[in-house]
């Protein structure tokens, strides 16, 4: 759970820290086998029934943090198997990106309804009256459910005046907005990768830490330790993510990790805003009934998987991450770019061949926190930057919160075509996004600009964030006040768009060849 330091958070942080330390210290993979014993010391288990199980799970998490696949459960192999292949600075994620450590899964029930000890044996018994299948009887004054008859409709739960009837569902499945999670033959969670869009909401929601995504921490640090300059492309949602790191020390903090410098992804958001505004004015309603934003890769991929017939209504603008990477490499040839953000789906986006030339690595805020720990960066001791990051608009930074993308595009359209009125509909969370698209498909949003965000609350609630989403949203609002101008159309980089036009028309918003 983001914003609360739980045992799951602690273990994840330890793993990211140890992988980062291994890279900074030179990457002697012979130490890899010892790391589970360092992270889970002693003889007595703390989190599970066996310390051996705890270490086995940590070993698998370490592998994934190195970008390696999980080991087969039915075959004996050292956890360091294949580590040498990952100790490079060019490795891209091997699919799948999101994985389930099967022996860490609690085998949560998909859905069950039961009567708790809170039942007061009331006179009215409304639960028995509303049940459509007569599945509830009264025994010794208390309600009992016949699970052979129960259809799990939840009517009894809603009727109980004491909230004594409980519906339990698998947390990862509830969080998944694409219904990609089901049970395997052993009752463990399993992912249907044909439906999965790598939003990472299942990863956040699993209280047992059984779901993990691959990382490029080691590969990024290997690149940093080389002669090639590596730039940190920092997403707008970074505001307030790292405790005690003020905005006027961010550049020096990332330089302390070894990055050459920091560039703002909000600059790319400004350019994305202008392109989406132009798209909307040119296409709606003359050529298409509505237009959907393109910046959230999980929303974009979900829309194209589930609604292929309206896929062309998604803006063709490249995402802020890609535009920022492309601009950085135009300005600093032969450099590498690491996107630092809140999003698991950005890892999937950057793994596409057409985007790898622009974005070399993707790290989450949570992973970078491990790098700060491994490097021993003292935020209090850092010097204040005399050149604070302020090259983007307030609207560009607003991309990090739900509604921010549409607001930026509407503001741009009002500047480019003051007479034009733009109606907006937005959704957050992939299940709500799907409802929005179903209505759009039915013609309910003709003439509209649609904004979809896979994570409830927007990017500030991404799977790789650290802070509470609500607090992060407030920090983003504060960061908007630190910019030199308000709207994207005033960006000093607007002349750069002309140099991107050829590439812009070759690829769609996911970086796939047209």
Using the CA coordinates, give the radius of gyration.
24 Å
Q: What global shape is seen?
A: globular
Beta-strand level of the residues, as a percent range?
5-15%
Helix content: 25-40%
Overall number of strands: 15
| Mean pLDDT across residues | 93
Describe the largest sheet: 4 strands, parallel
The number of helical elements comes to: 21
User: Could you list the spans in which at least 5 consecutive residues all have pLDDT below 50?
Assistant: 504-514
What spatial order of strands do you see in the largest sheet?
A: 10-9-12-13
Structural class: alpha/beta
Oligomeric category? single chain
| N-to-C CA distance | 39 Å
How are the secondary structure elements laid out?
Elements: H1 7-24, H2 35-39, H3 51-65, H4 83-86, E1 98-100, E2 111-115, H5 126-130, E3 136-139, E4 142-145, H6 155-159, E5 165-169, H7 171-175, E6 181-183, E7 189-191, H8 201-205, E8 211-213, H9 217-224, E9 230-234, H10 250-256, E10 261-264, H11 265-283, E11 291-292, H12 297-306, H13 320-331, E12 336-341, H14 345-350, H15 353-356, E13 361-364, H16 365-375, H17 394-397, H18 404-416, E14 423-428, H19 430-441, E15 448-453, H20 469-480, H21 497-506
Parallel strand pairs: 9-10, 9-12, 11-15, 12-13, 14-15
Antiparallel strand pairs: 1-8, 2-5, 3-4, 6-7
Helix pairs in contact: 1-3, 1-9, 1-16, 11-13, 11-18, 12-19
